[in-house]
Design goal:
This is Cytochrome-c peroxidase. By secondary structure, the protein is mainly α. The protein has three domains: 43 residues; 141 residues, Cytochrome Bc1 Complex, Chain D, domain 2; 133 residues, Cytochrome c-like domain (Cytochrome Bc1 Complex, Chain D, domain 2), CATH 1.10.760.10. Helices cover 41% and strands 1% of the residues. A two-stranded antiparallel sheet has the order 1-2. α15 crosses α16.
Amino acid sequence: MGLNQTGILFLIAMFLSCNSQNFLHSRDKSLKELPLTLLVGARLDLQEEAKTKIGSLPLISPGSEMDTPAMIRLGEKIFRDNSLSLNSVQSCSTCHLLSGNNVGTDGQPTSLGTFGQMGRRNTPSIFNVGFLNTIFWDGRKSSLLDQALLPFVDQSEMALASSDDLLARLNAKSEYANLFSSAYPLDPAIQLNSVKSSLSAFERTLVSKSRFDDFVNGNPYAITLAEKEGLRLFLDLNCMNCHAGPMLGGNKFVKLDTKYNYNPKDLGRFEFTGIETDKYFFRTPSLRNVALTAPYFHDGSVRSIEEAVRRMNEYEAPRPISEAEVTSLVTFLRSLSDKTKTSI
């Protein structure tokens, strides 16, 4: 008899031998005393449930079908070029670090501008950004193309006077002429549309490949037993209500519990929409690579992933969770990290 059938028959027998009230009271204790393998088999197959309720991340970002290696090279060059900021000390990659185990964040509570000024919001990861349907914490832009030029001219970021200043700096560097002509041979001029599309092409290459995806796609050994326990808890707590889909969040906006200490100088999505009910609404972040992106929340006010889990339990979860369950959830969340960025 298969493992799943054995586990299911065990639970049926337990239910028939107890009245329903006693069964409900004894279920947690009884299940904890069973081998983990029997528990997995006794309930809906964990892989199938995770595949149905979460899914795996596609291997390529939507819209990347027409991106060429030359476009990607140009986009990466622009992304890493410090000379494209007002005082030539900052690039996109200054805040969105990609080296080592970095996944496009800077480890700071809020972003630093080209003159060292502090921004209001935490730098979001740009890994998997091609799967988002809006960009920024307040969702004020609808695509990578729409947002591509903003950091160059934002006075709290790279602080150029205008997009014309950006074009002048690109034209002043001889290597860009060849890069643009290679990327856009039919229209080789250095122009803003090409800047936007090449940056977008590069950013679409930043796609995570996690052990969790391997598990959902059929490898039962890709995540550990402890990570499976955490996944089970994540599903049981319906964390997917906010952190939905293969991105595990990123595509909806929420206002946290009234206990959250909001900055009155940052009104969130309201600043973009002007709709009163949008005050203090911010994007629900994707949990992809979450173990690598501390500090947390839109204002970077939470330093550890454990504390972030505790806070979300306080604000949103259907029931209080124990410290052991906090550890279990964090263990699962670590399985969402890009495999090339971890030692596991």
